[in-house]
Amino acid sequence: MDKKRVDLFSAWKNLNGVVVTVDSNEHVLQLLLNLKNNEQLCYLDLEQDSLQDALLNLVCELLLRKQFFQLRFNKFVTQVKNRIKEVWIQDKQRFTGKSIRWDQKVKLHNASFKCLGRVDELNLRYQADNLVLDYVNLEAIASTTLNEFIHGITRTVMRFA
Predict the structure, then answer these.
(1) Closest CA relative to residue 73, chosen from 86, 59, 62
(2) pLDDT band with cut points at 50, 70 and 90 for residue 23
(3) What is the pLDDT of residues 39-53, one digit of tens each?
(4) DSSP letters spanning 54-91
(5) Tally of domains in the chain
(6) 86 and 147 assigned to the same domain
């Protein structure tokens, strides 16, 4: 990504989703900042193994934007989860209706969550107050046992109700 592409993509008024498959650099950050400032970004998909502080701060700012609703990570990073949690604790209401997805099994529930069981063939749900966690097993069928289901989880979705 270079400045020319940042300017081009920033000029698109209907660009509302971005998938970032390269390591973040000044151009990626500038593009995301431009889209944040234009209040047009609704969906962000990050496929990096880690996030620089500047990108992590920008992601947290996006989560507070009214139009933004879905964030997806390819990999789980504890630092990222903890930073998002800090921002959520400070302003839970602005997170309502948003979701964060990790494309892997990430145990996010603790004793404060109630297990609601399998809500359909593919989803095992936990809930605590306004936080809903879905553990997804895309290979599950109705007869899949709970133990088999848990071992086959490939996606974790956190939704703010």
Answers:
(1) 59
(2) confident
(3) 999 999 999 877 889
(4) HHHHHHHHHHTSSS--EEEESS--HHHHHHHHHHHHH-
(5) 2
(6) no
